[in-house]
Amino acid sequence: MESLESCVLYGANMDDLLRDFVIETTENIDVVDSELVRFEQDPNNKAIIAQIFRLVHTIKGTCGFLGLPRLEALTHAAESAIDLFRDGAPVTRDVVSLILVTIDRIKMIMAELDRSMQEPSGADLDLISRLEALVLGEVPESRPQASDFSNLNGEGNEDITVGTLVYQVLERPLRPGEVSLDELEKAFREGDLPETEFNSKTLNDAGLSSNLAAPEPADTGMEMLAVDGANKKTSIRVSVDTLEHLMTMVSELVLTRNQLLEIARRDENSAFKSPLQRLSQVTAELQESVMKTRMQPIGSAWALFPRLIRDLCEELKKEIDLETIGAETGIDRQLLEMIKDPMMHMIRNAADHGIETPGSRTLVGKPARGRITVEAAQKGGYILLSISDDGRGLNLKRVREKAVELGLASESDAAQMSDQQASKFIFNAGFSTAEKLTHISGRGVGMDVVRSNIEQIGGSIDISTTLGKGTRVEIKIPLTLAIAAALIVESGGQRFALPQMTVIELVRASSSNEARIEHLHSAPVLRLRERLLPLMQLSDVLGLKQASEASWENSFIIVCQVGQLRFGIVVDSVLQTEEIVVKPVSVRMRHLSCYSGVTILGDGTVIMILDPNGLLQHLGSSVEAHNDNVTDIQTQVSDEEIKTTLLVFRAGPGAPKALPLALVTRLEEIDVSRIEVSNGQHVVQYRGKLMALFSCQNDMVLRESGNQPVLVFMHGGAAVGVLVDEIIDIVEDVLNITMESTAPGILGSAIIRERATDIIDAAYFVPGLGSDNPAVSRGRQRLLLVESNDLFRAMLVPVMQAAGFEVVNVSSARNAAPHLAQEKFDVIVANIENGGLDDFSAMADGHCRLIGIASRASQHLLQTAHDANFDDVVGIFDREGLIASLRASDSMIGEAA
Amino acid sequence: MSVTMADVHDDDTRASDIEQLVMFYLNDQVFGLPIHQVRDVFIVSTMTRVPLAPAGVAGLFNLRGRVMTMLCMRELLGVTQHVDNAGMTAIGIEWRGESFGLVVDRIGEVASLSRSTRDLNPANLDPRWAGLSAGVYKLADTLLVELSLDALFNNSLKNAA
């Protein structure tokens, strides 16, 4: 009673699904048909067989959860047979014929399914046994040609099992003259139609007429057969081209209406007024309806999932919860169709491979019930879809091995690859690490299909995985066909649309202090609530004529967010918001990353839709890498108001630069005439040795004559110098990095003495200062650095490495835990300004040396640290002191060993 | 102010060696485009410029709800000497499913020309012209350059982009 029950349980919903399935599968089967024939002629074409295999696999998968056992069994057998070809089995005419016959049988079942919304009873043991024999290596006997439908007509009579039709159980005895459906079915099979005329068309008709001829018992839920014809017409497939054309026509109608309204407005007493109003209303409704034909909430595709999960749970003996977020996200109908299958594949994968059995979950301390989360959101010009599970994650070691096995990468490449890169292997065709095939997944087609489907619609797919924690697949689909709310802005005398999804706020720039645009080495920035916001002038980016600096004033700043990064787009004015229909950019201009599409405004003007993602590229590529940390640094530092002594100097054009004074050993002035070039390196004789000189600009710019200031750093016992133009000042200020770096060698920008200043990364300009020096290490000591401030981490790690330690750095005690659990450290260096001293001493647990660091070591702090069993406390900027303290631990450990 | 050329289309063109060309002008030079490739002829009012667009793309234009990518023939052919023409005239064409408009100075009549009067491009023709030309018709008083859309999209625009 399974199928009937499911009908009752899932009601109309399942009917819809079934109808979709029928329409789609009928199409797919037709493709398989022609492709198979093509494959027979061109048996070496792997692409064709892969395509066939995918299609059959998809049909099989869908049958599985729609509860169509007969089709499922048949397609499974067919898939296994086709798989042989994939593995390179010889393609013989007989084998192809057999598969074609199978496909015809599938078509027959589909026709019946389409008509009655029920899978016809019976099994196809005849075909299945032959297909199985094929898989087992037996040569199939010569069988009827594909065009021959004799098999339907009781071919191999003895093979056909006539099962009892579930839905034919009548609740009353047959009336005289009535024929039971069983018999009808039998008659249908053994039909006395002339064999020669028997094609699928007549079969269909015959089936229909015989069904209608039989009086239908109304109380068995089979009335739909009678109204079968009407049912079919409730949904039709319309080509997207037709809809597109309709849309264009409606847009035109809207424009004409607008013009008419304009005319009517001038003439108050026009007789056209009321019919115009009606026209206006109808047009608006028409427009809305046409729009609706294209848009659908993504949740409509998710309707399949609960059932899918339920069935998977039963089959796999797992417990899985499904969580869906953002079901209302509107998505273009066409796109929805395209992502349906990929989503299903991924859910199946997550359930089968990702989520563990309840037993093994409890064993590793996870709740017995697994969770699969499906999430959709529109972000910028994209729809972001993610499917994540809290399962075991990808076994990347196995993935790497498999990649090598399949020849996708050399052994060394695979080993060096980042986890992120390695996980991408699963998108390759035929890639499966599953040990055994289940009918759910594991044949290694899933992710390959998913990727090709997504890429077909110009999307991208990404995967991130953590062993033991789960896997997350993210799909990004462009919005090419969707409708979006947009902000219409003006820049350089031209209008543009900016998708509202990315816009966070609008700021009006003025010359007053609050919203003043400042320039940092020609990079415009805005102080927005104590944060520096990088800006871009739209007219600059687009190469529009830029009047003068004055145009910065009274302009609007559109604060956008792309991913984690916020930035401002400066435009001349903001006009209005409008619902726009996104049209694709002409192929001739698709390479322009600034635009995501074109749209026609209400007044008929064509304007470009800006793509914030693309614009971001003009902001500089290094921006993204640092942005994750921005908030952390900011909140952490501003909470504490640590004052740092900074050396402010000028080097090259643009904003002043600064670095913590503690890093500099000495300030010198050197006569430029003493600077020599040796081996391509600027050097100067300094205290009887040669000191290498570096510049913190890209090019070494020396003065013509006179003295040049040099910052001297001590590095591995040798001095290195960094040339600067002018030492400005030494200030004590809160070092508050509010903007990530846009240039190499600059850690970020900070407001120092009310001026935007670049904070220099000394290690970048002095090669070797930050690099490992293996000569120093004698059996390297391992050091764990716990420091939440990114700047300090960036400064300290090179120092520690130079001192011969292997450094693992983490931002908090919490993040340190996994490292401590797995690795052994000789020294722990932790920032103790935020407290948590006891945590650190627990971490050290007396086994390793514990050094506290603080930007200012007060007496009180020293005492507290001592009480908490800290071995030493040094200032963050006390380079020498820190090295001395580390050396002490070095020798101490040396003695102990 | 748009004329659809479909009705001008004549069936006998295919049979004979007569080619029907829609004539258009840049300055005084006459060009021709096979009539079956012409979809509309229209006056361009306001065109939207596309910043950063490749050379030759004059902008976008909304023709009855269709977004046309407008190509400036002057720029593509290097005819820089500018004449003051009030409204710009354009020829609407379709290429690989996309709509384009060719901005020209003015449109002439439809000429029925015998292929026998067509000659190859002279060797000393400006490469920009040679790149777009399918051949030169020798008219009584002037020479007509037949524009080839294949060449336009495969040579000129590709190089420009």
Structure description:
The complex is a heterodimer of chains A (897) and B (161). In chain A, 40% of the residues lie in helices and 25% in strands. Chain A contains 28 helices and 35 strands. The radius of gyration of chain A is 36 Å and the shape is globular. The model of chain A is unreliable at 1-12, 140-179, 187-232, 435-444, 621-641, 769-778 and 892-897 (pLDDT under 50). Chain B has helices at 12-15, 73-77, 127-132, 149-160; strands at 3-4, 18-26, 29-34, 40-44, 57-63, 66-72, 88-95, 98-104, 106-114, 118-119, 133-138, 143-147. In chain B, strands 1-4-7-8-6-5 form a six-stranded mixed sheet. A six-stranded mixed sheet of chain B has the order 9-2-3-12-11-10. The chains are: A alpha+beta (897), B alpha+beta (161). The interface between A and B is medium-sized, with 26 and 22 residues.
Mean pLDDT of chain A: 71
Number of helices of chain A: 28
Q: What is the string of helix and strand elements of chain B?
A: EHEEEEEHEEEEHEEH
Category by helix and strand content of chain A: alpha+beta
Shape of chain A: globular
Helical residues, percent of chain B: 10-25%
Rg of chain B, alpha carbons: 15 Å
Uncertain regions of chain A: pLDDT < 50 for 5+ in a row? 1-12, 140-179, 187-232, 435-444, 621-641, 769-778, 892-897
- Stretches with pLDDT under 50, minimum 5 residues of chain B: 1-14
The mean pLDDT of chain B is: 80
Give me the number of helical elements of chain B.
4
What is the straight-line distance between the termini of chain A? Answer: 75 Å
Largest sheet geometry of chain A = 6 strands, mixed
Percent of residues of chain A in beta strands? 15-25%
Most extensive interface? A-B, 26 and 22 residues
Strand ordering within the main sheet of chain A? 10-14-15-13-12-11
Integer-rounded radius of gyration of chain A: 36 Å
**Number of E-state strands of chain B:** 12
| Beta strands of chain A, count | 35
Assembly state of the chains shown:
heterodimer
